[in-house]
Design a protein that fits this description.
mainly alpha, elongated, 0% strand
Length: 202
């Protein structure tokens, strides 16, 4: 786990420590992820268990996907929560997104879509890609670009416009990466070439 993700998780524990344990879920985290507040416990119970639930989600120890878990935030009307709680969640999601881009072997598009729906400033999610164009992040970007048909359905028109603008701004770097990897990694170079064409047509 990266240091910044660990810090964000620790902040969740600190911020939500004000909510005492009332509901004993007996380590049934996946069941709780699906049933929290609908048929199991209330908002206060969800808040108490939120740090551990989110930590398990971020470390791959939870079977329920991000759409299910993060969807519970909307059910709990989290935008009405105290600002420090909202900020802790936003910071966690930004850190988790960055860690996933830098460390996970594959791009989880649905995880990214779920995070985008919760983070107000898209730049915070896009900037980590371009901080250092590693081969892993380049491959993940091609996966994201190739999935544009799907994310156009998931994102608002404003989010789509912001993402397309950002992608077009990355074209010089992606074209340079194509030439850098043309002989070292033909498959990545080909993926970059196709991605540049797709971005140009967006």
């Amino acid at each position: 786990m990266t240091s910044y993700l660990k810090t964000a998780i620790q902040d969740l524990y600190e911020v939500f420590s004000a909510y005492p344990k009332g509901l004993d879920i007996q380590e049934e985290w996946d069941r709780f992820a699906y049933k929290a507040m609908t048929t199991w416990g209330g908002v206060a119970d969800f808040k108490h268990h939120l740090p551990m639930l989110f930590e398990k989600m971020a470390t791959g120890a939870l079977g329920a996907d991000a759409f299910i878990v993060l969807g519970k935030l909307d059910y709990a009307q989290w935008k009405t929560w105290p600002e420090k709680e909202q900020a802790a969640i936003q910071n966690f999601l930004v850190a988790w997104n960055r860690a996933s881009l830098e460390e996970d072997p594959f791009f989880d598009d649905w995880q990214f879509y779920a995070i985008v729906k919760k983070v107000e400033d898209l730049k915070l999610l896009l900037q980590p890609w371009a901080q250092e164009w590693t081969p892993l992040k380049l491959q993940k970007l091609t996966d994201f670009v190739w999935g544009s048909y799907y994310w156009k359905k998931e994102f608002t028109p404003e989010q789509q416009a912001a993402i397309v603008k950002w992608l077009k701004a990355q074209l010089p770097a992606l074209e340079a990466a194509f030439f850098a990897f043309e002989k070292k990694d033909a498959a990545l170079a080909q993926a970059l070439s196709v991605s540049c064409q797709i971005i140009g047509a967006l």
